[in-house]
Structure formats: C-alpha cells, structure tokens
C-alpha cells in the first residue's frame, strides 16, 4: 500500500494539492494528513476528484517521526521535520499493527510553495 502524505498552506487549492502529488510521481492508494488539513475543503475536493480516501491523523501520530527533510517551522509546530513525510509514514502504517513503512523519496514542494507531498510504502511484518 502506498500513501501520499500531503502538507499545505491555508491558501492552497485542490489544484495545488494535485500538483504536489503529480510532482511526487507515484500512484497511491490513499492520502494522509493531520486532522485539520485532512478535513480542509481543498483536501476533501482533491480527494473526491482523485477518488482516494483520506487518512486523518492526530498530531501525536506524526510527532517524532523520522523524516528525510527538516523544516524548522514544521519541527517547531508538529515535532517532526516534514509534515508530508511524517503523514505518509504514519498513514501507511495506520490500521496495520506491526507493519512498518518507508519513504520512497524526500518530499516535493510545488513551485509556489503552497503544497508538499511525500509517498511512503507499507512494509508488511
């Protein structure tokens, strides 16, 4: 199972989220983000258009997650280096006790900086 972790600023649109996923370059089975972003209109519109479920995570689900990149702003806010990378990892493991996950690549950022995406793959135990 592959999950796209999505991070975005409040000004981002569904098109921005699609652009981030396109940059990531992988087919995914689900999208994941923290609860506030998972419920945001842009995320819901994007998920509907893409036909993908959204995995809603709590902030404690991603805190302390080891990521390939590190944004000081995200580290201070969420306790992890990249919201997109951490959400991808936590989302890929969600609902599969004992499973692990790995990032396929570092997060990608849209040209305007409004959205990020990272893809993680679940590794079965």
List keywords for this structure.
alpha/beta; 6-stranded mixed sheet; 38% helix
Care to describe what's here?
By secondary structure, the chain is an alpha/beta fold. 38% of the residues lie in helices and 25% in strands. Strands 1, 2, 3, 4, 5 and 6 form a 6-stranded mixed sheet that branches. Strand 5 and strand 6 form a beta hairpin. The chain is globular. The model has no long low-confidence stretch (mean pLDDT 96).
Summary, kept brief:
Helices cover about 40% and strands about 25% of the residues. It is an alpha/beta fold.
General shape: globular
Q: Specify the helix fraction band.
A: 25-40%
Uncertain runs are: none
Number of strands: 6
The proportion of residues in beta strands is 15-25%
Radius of gyration: 13 Å
Secondary-structure map:
Layout: E1 2-8, H1 14-24, E2 30-34, H2 35-38, H3 41-50, E3 54-57, H4 59-62, H5 72-78, H6 83-93, E4 100-103, E5 108-109, E6 115-123
Parallel strand pairs: 1-2, 2-3
Antiparallel strand pairs: 1-6, 4-6, 5-6
Helix pairs in contact: 1-3
């Amino acid at each position: 199972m592959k999950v796209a972790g999505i991070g975005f600023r409040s000004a981002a649109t569904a098109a921005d989220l699609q652009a981030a996923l396109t940059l990531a370059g992988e087919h995914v089975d689900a999208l994941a983000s923290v609860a506030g972003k998972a419920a945001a209109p842009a995320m819901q519109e994007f998920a509907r258009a893409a036909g993908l479920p959204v995995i809603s995570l709590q902030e404690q689900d991603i805190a302390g997650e080891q990521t390939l990149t590190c944004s000081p702003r995200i580290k201070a806010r969420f306790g992890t280096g990249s919201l997109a990378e951490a959400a991808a990892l936590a989302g890929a493991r969600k609902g599969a006790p004992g499973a692990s996950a790995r990032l396929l690549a570092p997060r990608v950022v849209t040209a305007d900086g409004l959205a990020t995406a990272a893809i993680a793959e679940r590794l079965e135990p």
